[in-house]
Amino acid sequence: MATVGELEGDEYIEIITQKVDQKYKEKLPVSFGPLTDKVVEQLRTLNKAIFPVRYNDKFYTDVQASGDYTQLAYYSTDILVGAICCRLEPRPEGGSKLYIMTIGVLAPYRCCGVGTNMLETVLTLAEADAAVHEVYLHVQTSNSDALNFYKRFGFEVGEKILNYYKRIEPPDCFVLSKAYSRA
Questions:
Q1: Which is catalytic among the residues 55, 136, 138, 165?
Q2: What is the model's pTM?
Q3: What span, in angstroms and rounded, lies between the C-alpha atoms of 147 and 140?
Q4: pLDDT tens string 106-129
C-alpha cells in the first residue's frame, strides 16, 4: 500500500478515518493569550524553533490583524509553548474564510493536548462567527500524522498542490478544509 506522500496525480487518497487514541504524556494546563506588539518577537523565536522555514514581516502583520483567531499557548502563565496563527480572507461570494497559516508546539510539550486545545479554540470561534464559511490549511503530503489529526476535527482532504513548498521535501501539499453551512 502506498503512503500518502507516494500518491501521484488524481489517485484516490485514503486517510485513516478511525479515531486514533491520543497517547498523552500528561494533559498540560495551558492558558491562551492574544498576539500583541509586546510578544511578536516571542512568536518569531517560537516559529524559528518549530518550523523549517522563516516567515517574513507580512506573515506577522497578517496574524496580528486576525484578532482572536491567532492564539498563543502559555504554560505556567508565562512560558510560550505553542501558537496557532491564522488569517481571515474575503470570499468572492461574501463572508470570509479562515486560513490556518501555522499551528505548532515546542517538542517537549507535544502530545500534551496543547495543539488540540489551540485548534479547538479557533474552530469554536470560527463556528460562532456567522461571517466565516470555511476554515482551511495546507499540509505536506508526507505528513500522515497531521492529516489524521485534522481529519479527527472534520477537515476533508481536497486538492493536491505540486511544488507548494520551496525549501522542504517533498514540496507538495494537500489543501484541507472544514466548511460551515450558513443560512
A1: 138
A2: 0.83
A3: 9
A4: 999 999 999 999 999 999 999 999
